[in-house]
Amino acid sequence: MTTTKKITVLLADDEPHIRLLMRKVMESMNAEVVAEAKNGEEAVALYRRTKPHMAFLDITMPIMDGKAALKAIREEFPDAFVIMLTSMSAMETVKECLDAGAANYIRKDTPLNELKLYIKETWSDFQKG
């Protein structure tokens, strides 16, 4: 993610420590977290307002889950770059998110060096079209 203009990021997770972890990861990758949401409804509203380059959505959130938030964002912004966050191992739900347009998914227990690599590779693939 070596660009002169910082990549902007939206983080959506109902667990504050996960948002903090992802903020630190993204900042270490020279990205700027422009918004944080604790549920899917907030995520959709903040996405509309900030139009970030990328968004991370937790699959399991209150009020509106990540899958519904993903669908709402992609409906309004078809080119949205979204990576799903999950602590679940329910591959069926992850597959539904990928089918709905998520660029990738990351398990929350992924080691930091792998996490950064997944993000870089997914972003690079997205940029290539």
Helix content, binned percent? 40-55%
**Poorly predicted sequence stretches spanning 5 or more consecutive residues:** none
* pLDDT averaged residue by residue: 90
Main sheet? 5 strands, parallel
User: Structurally, how many domains make up the residues?
Assistant: 1
Q: Helix count?
A: 5
Which strands sit side by side, in order, in the main sheet?
2-1-3-4-5
Characterize the overall form.
Answer: globular
CATH architecture: 3-Layer(aba) Sandwich
CATH hierarchy, class: Alpha Beta
Any idea what the radius of gyration is? 13 Å
Q: Which percent band covers the strand fraction?
A: 15-25%
The secondary structure category is alpha/beta
Mind telling me the CATH superfamily name? Response regulator
Order of helices and strands: EHEHEHEHEH
CATH topology: Rossmann fold
- Ends distance: 16 Å
Strand tally is 5
Written account of the structure:
- This protein has 5 helices and 5 strands.
- It is of the alpha/beta class.
- It has a single domain (7-128), classed as Response regulator (Rossmann fold), CATH 3.40.50.2300.
- It is globular.
- 30% of the residues are buried.
Characterize this entry briefly.
Helices cover 47% and strands 21% of the residues.
Key descriptive features of the protein:
129 residues, alpha/beta, Rossmann fold, five-stranded parallel β-sheet, 47% helix, 21% strand, globular
Tell me the layout of helices and strands.
Blueprint: E1 7-12, H1 16-28, E2 31-37, H2 40-50, E3 54-58, H3 66-76, E4 82-86, H4 91-99, E5 104-107, H5 112-128
Parallel strand pairs: 1-2, 1-3, 3-4, 4-5
